[in-house]
Design goal:
By secondary structure, this protein is mainly beta. It folds into 2 domains: 48 residues, no CATH class; 33 residues, no CATH class. Helices cover 12% and strands 43% of the residues. A hairpin with a 5-residue loop joins β4 and β5. The radius of gyration is 21 Å and the shape is elongated. The model has no long low-confidence stretch (mean pLDDT 81).
C-alpha cells in the first residue's frame, strides 16, 4: 500500500492510500482516524525512554510542571510555571 496524501479535516487525520486491486488497476482508499487516536498511537509507538512527555494536571494554587530531569546525584529536578494555576 502506498500513501498518496495525509490531511486534517474536522478533527480527523485523513489518509489516502493507493492499493492494488486483483486485476492490476490501482484504487485510492480513504481512511479517517480521529486526531487523538492518531497522536496516541504515534506516541505509544516510540520507546518509553524517548517519549519525553510530562503530563501535569495541577489543582488550583499548584504549579504546572513542564519538565523533569535527574541531576548528577540522581535526584529529580523540575521545571515548572512560576504562576500557580487559578
Amino acid at each position: 500500500m502506498k500513501v498518496v496524501s495525509i490531511s486534517f479535516d474536522a478533527g480527523d487525520i485523513v489518509v489516502v492510500s493507493e492499493s492494488a486491486e486483483e486485476h492490476g488497476s490501482n484504487k485510492e482508499v480513504e481512511e479517517r482516524i480521529p486526531l487523538g487516536e492518531f497522536i496516541r498511537d504515534a506516541l505509544l509507538s516510540l520507546p518509553e525512554n524517548e517519549r519525553g512527555i510530562v503530563i501535569s494536571n495541577p489543582a488550583p494554587g499548584e504549579h504546572k510542571i513542564y519538565g523533569i530531569r535527574r541531576n548528577a546525584e540522581g535526584n529529580p529536578e523540575y521545571d515548572y510555571n512560576d504562576e500557580p494555576e487559578p
